Amino acid sequence: MNDVVKSSVASYQSGFSLPQKLYTSREAFDFDMQHVFKKHWIHVGTVADVKRKGDYRVIQIDNNSIIIVRGQDDEVRAFYNSCRHRGAKVCVEDKGHVPKLVCPYHQWVYELDGSLIHSSRMGEGFNCDASGLKPVALESIGGLLFMNLSENPDMAALEQMRSELEPFAAFYQLDKLKVAHEADLIENANWKLVVENNRECYHCGANHPELLRVWPPYGVGFGWPDDPKEKQAAEEKLNALYDAKIPEWQNMGMPYEIVEMDENRWYRAARMLLTQGAVSQTMDGQPAVKKLLPPFSEPDNSSLSMWTHPNAWLHFTCDHILSTSVLPLSEDKTLVRTRWMVREDAVEGEDYDLSNLTHTWIQTNDQDRMLAEITHAGCLTDGYIPGPYSEDSESLLQHFTDWYVDQIKQQL
Predict the structure, then answer these.
(1) pLDDT (tens digit, 9 = 90+) per residue, 255-310?
(2) What CA–CA distance (Å, rounded) separates 188 from 196?
(3) Which of 10, 16, 129, 202 has its CA 20 to 30 A from that of 245?
């Protein structure tokens, strides 16, 4: 068993940041990949990534290249990107559209459901039926795609999440959307620091001027004024706004009650009211897309936020959806992939301006990159000591680190 991980977990104190080696060591990274990213349900995209029959995406998780493809039966499936002949990659591009999956090495041909349908010169005794691409567990939760690389994935955990999150995601009809833009950002920081930064807004006021043009100054996850009277006044004002808004959500059939993280939940959904008359996460708060998402006939000033451990966060507004997934590359490099989704019939340059649609979160992601990188650099120093979390503003962060340590303990 990994002594570095074992000793680090033994010294972990809930309510404090993680011991140094869990952020900085190659041993901890390798352990994370084997026992977190290859055993848990990982967010890898949405059904909008593979809209047409024959569309595919390739996802890299540690040493594993995975094909996500929409079949002729309209089902979205996942397979190891490894030919059953001699292991060559079947899909060498990150994305594309194909009528069949054809290995470029010896031209073995696979149907989009993974079955092998052609393999020349293999002799009469060769059985195509037994040589299809090896499948990977892939599930859609209201159009959100989650992958599990375990031989025996935890379906009970997946079904619990489905029962609580699917109503939120399904409301937005992701099957009727398309990806307007995708941006990959490489952050020179450990993946846990990238996720931790996302799980709190303690840092937002000093670091995210674009985002705070539309996000509320207070509320769950954002903290409250230090002065008790100011806090009470802020809570009463916010509660009154929500009390007035809830009947509208109910009339629309829009889920709004918070799904809170706890010892049994590794996911969260919360609907918040945008501030200052905003209805979208844009610089002026106005819709970035003229054609609103299918459920909306007029702009709505709410934003649904969703988080799943270990690697995702999403934001849903009335005109577009933002989906972000984190994929570790090494102990000190992390891929952050963000997608902006709009109605499938929205036309760039006519119904939306791409720079306006993406500006707020491109800036926010880059600001978060800087914060994660300076934190990783500081964690490398001899002076690093795990520090305390703010009970007021970092409860979701504490849930993440507690959850992470629990995943390790289960393996130890």
Answers:
(1) 999 999 998 899 999 999 999 899 999 999 999 999 999 999 999 999 999 999 99
(2) 14
(3) 202
